[in-house]
Amino acid sequence: MRSLVTGGTGFIGANVVRALLRRGDEVRVLARPESDGANLRGLAVDVVHGDLGDRTSLRAAVASCDRVFHVGALYSFWVRDPDLIYEVNVEGTRNVLAAAEEGGVKRIVVTSSVAALAVPRKGEVVTEDVPADPSRILGAYKRSKYLAEQVALEAAGRGVPVVIVNPSFPVGPWDAKPTPTGRVVVDFLNRRMPAYIETGMNVVAVEDVAEGHLLAAERGRIGQRYILGGENMTMRRLLEILAGVSGLPAPRIRVPYGPILALSYANVAACRVTGRTPRMTPDTIRMSRHAMYYDSGKAQRELGLPSTPIAEALRRAVAWFTENGYVRPGIRTR
Fold this sequence. Notes:
Elements lengths: L1 E5 L4 H13 L2 E6 L14 E4 L5 H8 L4 E4 L11 H21 L4 E5 L28 H18 L4 E6 L1 E3 L8 H10 L5 E2 L3 E6 H14 L5 E4 L2 E4 H12 L6 E2 L2 H18 L7 H6 L9 H6 L7 H14 L11
Parallel strand pairs: 1-2, 1-4, 2-3, 4-5, 5-6, 6-10, 7-9, 8-12
Antiparallel strand pairs: 9-11
């Protein structure tokens, strides 16, 4: 079995690549020439250069592949040019699906996100069946994932063998950038989190997300969506678990919503001048008012999605960030 993975140099993609290799697949990875290949170092994979915007390179990449795992995306809650995020996430998905359809690929797994699903209302735990209201989707990233998912559903509707997976907030190894979720862990470890904003999220081990991709390819129903999630928890609970696995104290000060929203506008304004990436934006602060709770029961029932305890997932994340130089010297973790 030969599988193509787009975004294989990234966080989820690198874990999908490793899961495929453990299954004995031949793995091809599509990567831009300038991509950092550190996450694939030492792995027996065929790296081909291309771009999600270049259909010619995509046709060459899918040639002779049985399956395509389209993991590649621009995962950021702030970009200077919002058009870029739509170009990569929406049009890139359209291009990958077109190339895979032309190439006669037998199964395509599109990595969407819980960001594409309905925004939970107070006290609600969202499933795949809750209809999304596009007007309630905040930010270019979330809107782009919603639109990319519509592209995938349209393709499935005309017979393209597409299955969609919706990871929640993964944690674990190979989060090299790191992602916004991993940044919470890194900031905690580096003692850069004197206070926190209370919110709710669904946290999942990235290894479970990777395994969910393979299970979706093997057992998923065409045109269906599967939430790849773990445990719903508050930010306070997440920080308490991090404290337990790292041996570092959790922040106790809860910051009110209003002052932080004002500060986020100032942060974005400053970053437009300095060229740096803001640590928070008005959209992310507004999103924090919603507890992003999701139910992955469908993936557990139909796919056999595994469920790693979140303490173990965070322990692996702490170990990986510590061993790979993300933690300042002098800070000791367990």
